[in-house]
TrEMBL record:
<dbReference type="InterPro" id="IPR037196">
    <property type="entry name" value="HSP90_C"/>
</dbReference>
<comment type="similarity">
    <text>Belongs to the heat shock protein 90 family.</text>
</comment>
<dbReference type="InterPro" id="IPR020575">
    <property type="entry name" value="Hsp90_N"/>
</dbReference>
<comment type="function">
    <text>Molecular chaperone. Has ATPase activity.</text>
</comment>
<dbReference type="InterPro" id="IPR036890">
    <property type="entry name" value="HATPase_C_sf"/>
</dbReference>
<protein>
    <recommendedName>
        <fullName>Chaperone protein HtpG</fullName>
    </recommendedName>
</protein>
<dbReference type="InterPro" id="IPR001404">
    <property type="entry name" value="Hsp90_fam"/>
</dbReference>
<feature type="domain" description="Histidine kinase/HSP90-like ATPase">
    <location>
        <begin position="30"/>
        <end position="187"/>
    </location>
</feature>
<dbReference type="Pfam" id="PF00183">
    <property type="entry name" value="HSP90"/>
</dbReference>
<keyword id="KW-0547">Nucleotide-binding</keyword>
<keyword id="KW-0963">Cytoplasm</keyword>
<feature type="region of interest" description="C">
    <location>
        <begin position="560"/>
        <end position="634"/>
    </location>
</feature>
<dbReference type="Pfam" id="PF13589">
    <property type="entry name" value="HATPase_c_3"/>
</dbReference>
<keyword id="KW-0346">Stress response</keyword>
<dbReference type="InterPro" id="IPR020568">
    <property type="entry name" value="Ribosomal_Su5_D2-typ_SF"/>
</dbReference>
<dbReference type="InterPro" id="IPR003594">
    <property type="entry name" value="HATPase_dom"/>
</dbReference>
<keyword id="KW-0143">Chaperone</keyword>
């Protein structure tokens, strides 16, 4: 072995120490995943070399045959994984093997469930795959040299997983990385050709790169052992380039786990080859669960991009809109330049055409899932529903299609589950109903019991109940569906159109005219607290409610703006009262102006509380209520 120089001992980042302790002492139920992770890393290293060599062919150093080799030594109890990819410099090794970027460990720890098998499969998702080596090894050595560096600039990294690692400079003739695992006592099963072959076939058969293992051969008695021969044990062809008819579901599922760093099978996938004006292949997956960074819109996301089967970019975000950022997959184009960069991708008209087609393909896949597998779609919606609600604002061209995929809670369903589609809502609509009615609020209990729903219950009209923080913003972009416009039942002057008979409309007009004096009296009492006072057509049981002006912000939008530090425009609610309610009848007959004022303000504050709003002056409300209670008890 080459002489080591510049040898030093360094400590792991604190998070790595935590992770190593976890790997060594806890995640042992599915030990074989270490090989999947190390082969996956080796595949990435080869992909990176292949891409960099497009502009710097000298990086190949005359060796263009790219591959991964897995070997073992029964006597020494070692397993070795070697690639001739991009390799690491000394600085790379310290950075990549001694630290974890972006608090990977903190997120990893937070997502642990206590189920060893599931937890061990989380490893790849958080970019900590290398450390899985310590599940089976009590010492790990890495020999590496970055392509393009001098042979004397190789690096030897070594650790026993006990809080520190050694690093030294060595001579290494070949570029790439060799990882040697010194197996723990009791892990000898992995120093076996048959066992390693099975693991490779199980997890890495789809990798588009030859994975070689030593060929099983025995020397004849009295002869020297034959020279080492290698054989490829995986298919080594890009899965997406093969005909769909030749690919088993299990192969699609394993490929997803590789690119998605996931342990669960995907909910659905779509594999297509486009020929004609544009030529490209795509393989798109809908995950079964949300990644930990789903709501970090600035987090890296996107498809793996290949050009003529050459890897170009790991997270090309230009091929799908942001609301579909959870989609995993591969796109391989024949029409893009191999030297594409993120900047070029954003300006290329070919990308716009591909993005449009791929977006439609994903939405079609989701429609199919919703139609054929409603229970699975229910699970999808729980995980990704709030992200899908970003769609109508971002993707005007597909607004109707996205709207058909949305799911809501409604007065038709108990329990508040978001399971009602707009198509189902319209199928149940009353005869003559030409609107889709909805109500937004903070919680399901609040909207379900809202006085705004009283007239709808009386008439048996279904109302959608929207309680996600994003809902009011969503509805500002979702104007209609299937030709029917949306109506917020808490906004403006409610008009039920054909759902009210002529007699009901005439009666409402007469009541409003008869109560004009009471309207003026309440308006004078409440003053600047309200923009308007009127007789309500919404109420059957409650004395009063607050409605929102047609152009005013609702409570959800006000809270979002306030939380982000933005100035919220001033607006005042509309006070509506139920003339048939005993409290309103008592108010109408009240002679004392002071008592009338107290009662009016109490009703106003109660209406605000029923709407989920906070009181401007809680102390005044309590004072007025106590005064009233004392009067009643005398």
């Amino acid at each position: 072995m080459s002489v080591e120089t510049q040898k030093e001992t360094l400590g792991f980042q604190t998070e790595v120490k935590q992770l190593l302790h976890l790997m060594i002492h806890s995640l042992y139920s599915n030990k074989e995943i270490f090989l999947r992770e190390l082969i996956s890393n080796a595949s990435d290293a080869v992909d990176k070399l292949r891409f960099e060599a497009l502009s710097k062919p000298e990086l190949l150093e005359g060796g263009a045959e790219l591959k991964i080799r897995v070997s073992f030594d029964k006597d020494a109890k070692t397993v070795t994984i070697e690639d001739n990819g991009i390799g690491m410099s000394r600085e790379d090794a310290i950075t990549h093997l001694g630290t974890i970027a972006k608090s990977g460990t903190a997120d990893f720890m937070k997502n642990l469930s206590g189920d060893q098998k599931k937890d061990s499969h989380l490893i790849g998702q958080f970019g900590v795959g290398f450390y899985s080596a310590f599940i089976v090894a009590d010492q790990v050595e890495v020999f590496s040299r970055r392509a393009g560096l001098d042979a004397s600039e190789g690096v030897h990294w070594s650790s026993k997983g006990e809080g520190e690692f050694e690093i030294a400079t060595i001579d290494k003739a070949d570029r790439g990385t060799r990882i040697v695992l010194h197996l723990k006592s009791g892990e000898d099963e992995f120093a076996d050709g048959w066992r390693l072959r099975n693991i490779v076939k199980k997890y890495s058969d789809h990798i588009a790169l030859p994975i070689e293992l030593p060929k099983e051969q025995a020397a004849a008695e009295g002869e020297e052992a034959p020279a080492q021969e290698w054989e490829v044990v995986n298919r080594a062809s890009a899965l997406w380039t093969r005909p769909r008819t030749e690919i088993k579901d299990e192969e699609y599922q394993e490929f997803y786990k590789h690119i998605g760093h996931d342990y669960e099978n995907p909910l659905s996938w779509s594999h297509n080859k486009v020929e004609g004006k544009l030529e490209y292949s795509s393989l798109l997956y809908v995950p079964a669960r949300a990644p930990f960074d789903l709501y970090q819109r600035e987090a890296p996301k996107g498809l793996k991009l290949y050009v003529q089967r050459v890897f170009v970019m790991d997270q090309a975000e230009s091929f799908l809109p942001l609301y579909l950022r959870f989609i995993k997959g591969v796109v391989d184009s024949n029409d893009l330049s191999l030297n594409v960069s993120r900047e070029i991708l954003q300006k290329d008209p070919i990308i716009d055409s591909m993005k449009s087609a791929l977006t439609k393909r994903v939405l079609d896949m989701l429609e199919k899932l919703a139609k054929n597998e409603p229970e699975q779609y229910k699970g999808f919606w729980k995980n990704f529903g709030q992200v899908m609600k970003e769609g109508p604002a971002e993707d005007f061209a597909n607004k109707e299609k996205i709207a058909g995929l949305l799911r809501f809670a409604s007065t038709h369903e108990e329990g508040g589950e978001q399971v009602v589609s707009l198509a189902e809502y319209l199928a149940r609509a009353k005869e003559g109903q030409d609107k889709i009615y909805y109500l937004t609020g903070e919680t399901y209990a609040q909207v379900k019991n809202s006085p705004h729903l009283e007239v709808f219950r009386k008439k048996g009209i279904e109302v959608l109940l929207l309680t996600d923080r994003i809902d009011e913003w969503l509805m500002s972009y979702l104007n209609e569906f299937d030709g029917k416009s949306f109506v917020d039942v808490a906004r403006g002057d409610l008009d039920l159109g054909n759902l009210d008979s002529e007699e009901e409309k005439k009666e409402a007009e007469e009541v409003a005219k008869a109560k004009e004096g009471l309207v003026e009296r309440i308006k004078a009492s409440l003053g600047d607290a309200v923009s308007e006072v009127r007789v309500s057509h919404r109420l059957t049981d409650s004395p009063a409610i607050l409605a929102i002006g047609e152009a005013d912000l609702g409570m959800q939008m006000r809270q979002i703006l306030e939380a982000s530090g933005q100035k919220v425009p001033d607006s005042k609610p509309i006070f509506e009262f139920n003339p048939a309610h005993p409290l309103i009848e008592k108010l109408d007959g009240e002679q004392s102006e002071e008592r009338f004022g107290d009662l009016s303000h109490i009703l106003f504050d109660q209406a605000a509380l029923a709407a989920g709003d906070s009181l401007k002056d809680p102390a005044a409300y309590v004072r007025r209520l106590n005064k009233l209670l004392v009067e009643l008890s005398v």
